[in-house]
Write a structure and sequence with these properties.
This protein has 15 helices and 2 strands. By secondary structure, it is mostly helical. It has one domain: NCX, central ion-binding region (A middle domain of Talin 1).
């Protein structure tokens, strides 16, 4: 019954997009409608990924979900760059990594319960995020005094971004070789959608998610103003959660169905991909719009490093449990409080 309802509600997304361009709706109403439309889209991406993973295995399945799921974040970030909202861009990207590490993975473990994770794959993701955090310091530390958007920091961002992309290519090549397949399972071998149809659904759902997320982000400032929140908090928490809607829904749904390894792979692969691919990609693509410096705040990098260490300690033995999931969610709650308390200062 729930599955049928979600399938039926997927059509709500084009309806919201049509209303946005045809009617002059109140921005608060648009925010609520767009948020509601993202729920079935997130489920659809998770559904398509699960079917694709029946053909490819959890490693490549997680990679596919991370790739399609992060497309809306790229679009949101570039739109914010175009509007000159550099703090929103940096906050949403760092908040995305933290959200995947703590919130998405936490709810996945909570939904999946006890089980065994791919310890090797998990620590590859941890290593990538750790390398990215250290490289971010090269630009961030000089940005803690003076103008964080000055041109010298934007220029320093370029070699840092290129180094991160080299790390991403190397890690992706290794990961795909590690999960290589002798063949892609045929439609007759598995009880699932065909591989091509799964990819087509993933692509279509990602495009729709990007359009709906754009509407939601466009109405966020009004929502933030009425709620008395800072731009940084809205970016690092609300925009990050919205941009990660696909991973949130997809990973938790997959975990609830007992495929815990795939769920953890989705959350951790997405966090790593944001850190070593999406962030440098946004920085380099922004050069044709408005140069973006990766001058993250102290509180952002401290929260990122803390989330990384805490998650690694929770998963050090490669085992899952609902208690571990609860701990990760509680840690995310603490990060949200810190971000709220920091305001525009740090």
């Amino acid at each position: 019954m729930l599955r049928r309802a979600l399938f039926a509600s997927v059509g709500f997304a084009p309806f919201v997009i049509l209303l946005h361009y045809v009617l002059d709706l109140d921005e608060t109403v648009e925010f609520v409608l767009a948020a509601a439309a993202l729920v079935p889209l997130a489920w659809l991406i998770g559904e398509a990924t699960e079917h694709a993973a029946e053909h490819t295995g959890p490693g490549i399945g997680g990679f596919l979900n991370a790739t399609f799921g992060n497309a809306p974040e790229l679009i949101i970030a570039l739109l914010a760059v175009h509007e000159g909202l550099t703090e929103v861009v940096r906050g949403s990207l760092s908040g995305s990594v933290i959200g995947n590490l703590l919130l998405v993975l936490g709810f996945s473990l909570l939904a999946g319960g006890r089980g065994e994770l791919d310890r090797g794959s998990s620590f590859i993701s941890f290593g990538l995020i750790g390398v990215a955090t250290l490289l971010f310091l090269i630009v961030a530390i000089p940005g803690w005094s003076g103008d964080p958007d000055r041109s010298s920091l934007a220029h320093l961002t370029i070699p840092v971004s290129l180094a991160l992309l080299v790390v991403y290519v190397a890690a992706t090549w290794y990961s795909l070789r590690r999960h290589r397949l002798s063949h892609v399972a045929s439609d007759e071998e598995v009880d699932a959608w065909s591989f091509r149809f799964s990819l087509a659904v993933l692509a279509a759902a990602t495009v729709a998610t990007a359009l709906v997320a754009e509407i939601l982000v466009g109405s966020l400032e009004v929502f933030a103003h009425e709620a008395g929140l800072t731009d940084f908090f809205v970016a690092a928490v609300i925009v990050a959660i919205v941009g990660n809607a696909a991973e949130h829904g997809g990973a938790v749904l997959v975990a609830f169905r007992g495929k815990l390894k795939l769920a953890a792979e989705i959350a951790l692969a997405s966090a790593a991909q944001v850190a070593v691919f999406l962030i440098p990609a946004v920085a380099l693509l922004s050069l044709v719009i408005e140069p973006l410096a990766l001058s993250f705040r102290q509180v952002e990098l401290a929260a990122l490093a803390g989330a990384l260490v805490f998650t690694a300690l929770v998963l050090v033995n490669g085992q899952s449990s609902r208690l571990r999931g609860g701990l990760l969610i509680a840690c995310y709650g603490a990060v949200v409080v810190v971000f709220y308390s920091a305001g525009e200062r740090f």
